[in-house]
Design a protein that fits this description.
Strand content: 25-35%
Largest sheet: 8 strands, mixed
Number of helices: 13
CATH class of one domain: Alpha Beta
Oligomer: single chain
Strand order of the largest sheet: 3-6-2-1-9-13-14-12
Shape: globular
CATH superfamily of one domain: Acetylglutamate kinase-like
CATH architecture of one domain: 3-Layer(aba) Sandwich
């Protein structure tokens, strides 16, 4: 007998009909002799509806009140699913974050888990019951409800699976695995049977929305067996495994596009030691994640500082950047939201040269201008005009030999 954690996303529980199918899947897993812990998202569209209600109620909704509001979507899901499981002869226990003590920090809207008290969950599992947990939420040190940000149910599932030492954590969604590119953009994108934690983390960070980046971080840190699969089919999905378990490292595993970032530029920044730290300090204090950074030296000895932030943080980032610019004596602050970050990811980059050259040459042929560049050991990211995003993904996908063959495998250049 093994313990499996199954997380079901919003589309998987988007209606009572879909919930019935999920309940049947959970029952089938139990019938195979495995213990199951279920983590659920809110029904599709419910979180968006609640966020819109908050915006109608207030121009600047209180973050703690927003968390209290949006967390109710998952409460509906776990109650309904527990009813459906009961009808199938399974004793399910719907659980909110405070009941199983998912402890977090106090950062509302993007809280991080600090500890999970797993004794109660183990007791329920030992009794042959099925815990049905509300994803996306935790409890702060003051007892307030916190949330993890969009896609946060993935984080709940990975953290619970790690705490319980589960054999597998299945992220059940509306896609049947991780693809070499978004199939909606590249018709010949190919599903990967396996991918390393590091590659999936970079793809998720680059805009691939198949799984939350923090869920992958938890899985990698705990060497948790993670699988991305569809709740709409019995396809095997994509296994996420340690890099050392991949016998032969392919050069490129995938191309991702992120249109949810914005660009901020501070002009004429004084060339003084410590000035950049003073600019980023208020952004860090506000919990704004800065991604790519570019610094250009001007003729007058000053420089321009450009960086990217999540698009939904642009207004707040702009205000902090303008304040910092005044403090350090910099020039005007500009912002642009019509950008896309395109990332090429593959662990084979560590031992192969020429990836950046192929990427830049391919884009140049399509007359796509590069605004910013960022790299890691296994990723090259660029910022371009958003209108060229789909073209860039398609041409790079082909240039790196990721086209799907007739047998469904990837033809690698």
């Amino acid at each position: 007998m093994a313990l499996i954690v199954q997380k079901y996303g919003g589309t998987s529980v988007g209606s009572i009909e879909r919930m019935r199918a999920v309940a049947d899947r959970i029952a089938a897993t139990r019938a195979e002799g495995d213990d199951v812990v279920v983590v659920l998202s809110a029904m599709a569209g419910e979180t968006t509806r609640l966020v819109e209600l908050a915006s109608e109620a207030s121009k600047e909704p209180n973050a703690a009140c927003c968390d209290l509001l949006v967390s109710t979507g998952e409460q509906i899901s776990i109650a309904l699913m527990s009813m459906l499981l009961a009808d199938r002869g399974i004793e399910a226990v719907p659980l909110l974050a405070h009941q199983i003590h998912i402890h977090t920090d106090d950062n509302h809207g993007r809280a991080r888990i600090t500890k999970i008290d797993d004794d109660f969950l183990r007791e329920l599992i030992g009794q042959g019951r099925v815990p049905v947990i509300a994803g996306f939420q935790g409890v702060s040190s003051t007892g307030a409800i916190t949330t993890f940000g969009r896609g946060g149910s993935d984080v709940t599932a990975a953290a619970v699976a790690a705490a319980l030492g589960a054999r597998t954590c299945d992220i059940m969604t509306d896609v049947d695995g991780v693809y070499t590119a978004d199939p909606r953009i590249c018709e010949r994108a190919c599903k990967l049977s396996r991918i390393s934690y590091e590659e999936l983390l970079e793809l998720a960070d680059g805009g691939a929305k198949v799984v939350h980046t923090r869920a992958v971080e938890i899985a990698a840190a705990q060497r948790l067996s993670l699988r991305i699969r569809s709740s709409f089919s019995d396809e095997e999905g994509t296994w996420v495994i340690p890099e050392e378990d991949i016998m032969e490292s392919t050069l490129i595993s995938g191309i991702s596009a992120n249109l949810d970032e914005a660009k901020v530029a501070i002009r004429s920044v004084p060339d003084e030691v410590g000035v950049v730290a003073r600019i980023f300090e208020p952004l860090a204090r506000a919990g704004i994640n800065v991604d790519l950074i570019l610094q250009n030296l001007a003729d007058d000895g000053r420089h321009d500082l450009t960086f990217t932030v999540p698009k939904n943080d642009l207004k707040k980032a702009l205000a902090h950047a303008e304040g910092a610019a005044r403090v350090v004596g910099a020039g005007r602050v500009e912002a642009a939201g019509d950008i896309a970050k395109i990332s090429v990811v593959g662990i084979g980059m560590r031992s192969h040269a020429g990836v950046a050259h192929t990427m830049f040459e391919t884009l140049a042929k399509d007359n796509i201008a590069i605004q910013m560049i960022g790299t890691s050991e296994i990723k090259v990211s660029i910022v371009i005009d958003a209108k060229h995003a789909e073209l860039a993904v398609r041409t790079l996908h082909k240039a790196f030999g990721l086209e799907q063959r007739a047998d469904g495998e990837v033809s690698r250049a």
